[in-house]
Specification:
The protein has helices spanning 2-8, 12-31, 41-48, 52-60, 76-91, 93-100, 103-135, 144-171, 176-187, 189-202, 207-229, 265-284, 287-297, 302-323, 326-335, 347-382, 391-414; strands at residues 231-238, 240-243, 246-249, 252-258, 338-339. With 422 residues, the chain is mainly alpha-helical.
């Protein structure tokens, strides 16, 4: 794999995309250290390290929240806007028509709506965060002017990181927003390892517990890779055609259906969905709503883990349903003279493909849900975070890495290189 990767760097276009990706990620990492005025960064960092709502927010900001930086909101407003737009697309006929029937122009129009919604949500969440920090005593000044400056800076940072993410998708390798989250998680790995060994040295963490946690992380990594790579193969037979003295077709092949069609997006959507109520509670106020938000975002709580597990299953099915069209696939097979043995072409083939995909997706989605919550359960039992990565972080890192490697592989196959994943 490494030999092929080094050979791929000889491709000028791929080399430029590599450099663009590194440059964009470097700029974003620098942005996570640009401080926002009036915020007491050290007190906020101590609060974030306690986990809960702020811990999840810090995950999506790549550490920007702990640094009280310009990118403290990270890509969370964009993710929330994407979730809302995806839900609206499934219930509003006009949006569904734009998504499915008008091709690239329709998708660009929907993306424009997502940007507008991101501005609105970013403004709402920025002001909510400023008010919440003021109530927690994290601000040096609590005047209306200081709150406005903080909200304006955070909104500008959210839109800047969105623009950088879209630019990264266009001129780099992989999905820009996913790579931003990926880079933030990886950047925290050295400090997590150092902290774990410091806990062992001070006696707060037993060495056996650390070894068990590392082994658990490795097992979760292997299980996640296996799940993302697994596929269900449906046999397809192509009819034989005779043209003159030559015979064409007649070969048997298969239709590969990946168990996780939606990639890493269900995990990202589920995580951000759990954080959204607390953001609304900070803006609206109210003890009950704030308490609900805290319960949903507490990774050690039973309610959080149950809802997180169910949300992963829901978003896996939901995103698969809007990105995978069995009817179109059935028509393509029929168009090229193919058929599934024992299944009539047309509507029966589409129904069969949809049924197989649904049955294959369910155990994979359940498995992903269990992987996501297992470190949280482990942590609550031991009382210490012995895992180097949490379940959400593991799923995001592996999912983004595999999707990026597949995109690199597509460039290699065009240039007749052997695939990276083989």
């Amino acid at each position: 794999m490494w030999q092929n990767l080094l050979g791929a760097l000889g491709i000028k276009e791929l080399k430029i995309r590599f450099l663009n990706t590194l440059l964009m990620l470097a700029i974003i990492r620098i942005g996570t250290f640009i401080p926002v005025p009036y915020i007491q960064a050290e007190r906020l960092r101590d609060l974030v390290e306690q986990g809960g709502v702020l811990g999840l927010l810090n995950l999506f900001s790549g550490g920007g929240l702990a640094n009280a930086s310009l990118f403290a909101l990270g890509v969370l407003p964009y993710i929330n806007a994407s979730i809302i737009m995806q839900l609206l697309t499934s219930v509003i006929p006009r949006l569904e028509q734009l998504s499915r029937e008008e091709g690239q122009e329709g998708r660009e129009q929907i993306q424009k709506y997502v940007r507008y919604l991101t501005v609105a949500l970013g403004t709402l969440q920025s002001y909510a965060m400023a008010v919440a920090l003021s109530r927690l005593g994290m601000l040096k000044e609590t005047s209306l002017l200081s709150l406005s400056i903080i909200a304006l800076a955070l909104t500008a940072g959210a839109m800047l990181i969105l623009w950088l993410g879209e630019l990264l998708t266009e001129i780099g390798i992989g999905n820009g927003v996913s790579l931003i989250i990926f880079a933030g998680i990886i950047a925290r790995l050295p400090s997590s390892i150092i902290a774990a060994f410091q806990f062992v040295r001070t006696g707060e963490l037993h060495v056996f517990t650390l070894i068990l946690g590392i082994a658990g992380s490795v097992i979760l990594l292997a299980a996640t890779i296996f799940t993302y790579q697994a596929e269900r193969r449906i046999p397809v037979q192509y009819a034989r055609k005779v043209v003159g003295r030559r015979v064409y077709g007649g070969q048997s092949t298969y239709l590969p259906l990946k168990l996780i069609q939606a990639g890493v997006l269900p995990i990202i959507f589920a995580s951000s969905f759990l954080v959204f109520p607390s953001s609304i509670a900070q803006f609206i106020g109210g003890t009950t709503l704030r308490r609900i938000g805290e319960i949903l975002a507490d990774p050690n709580g039973l309610t959080h883990n149950i809802i997180f597990f169910l949300l992963i299953i829901f978003f896996t099915y939901f995103y698969t349903s809007i990105t995978f069209d069995p009817n179109r696939l059935s028509n393509d097979i029929k168009k090229y003279g193919g058929y599934i043995p024992g299944i009539r072409p047309g509507e029966a083939t589409a129904t069969h493909i949809g049924t197989v995909l649904s049955r294959a997706t369910f155990p994979a989605a359940v498995f992903l849900g269990l992987i996501a919550i297992s470190p949280n359960i482990f942590t609550s039992i031991l009382g210490l975070d012995a895992f180097i990565f949490g379940g959400t972080a593991i799923l995001i890192v592996i999912g983004v890495a595999l999707e990026t490697m597949r995109q690199i592989e597509s460039y290699l196959l065009v240039r007749h290189y052997e695939g990276l994943l083989k």
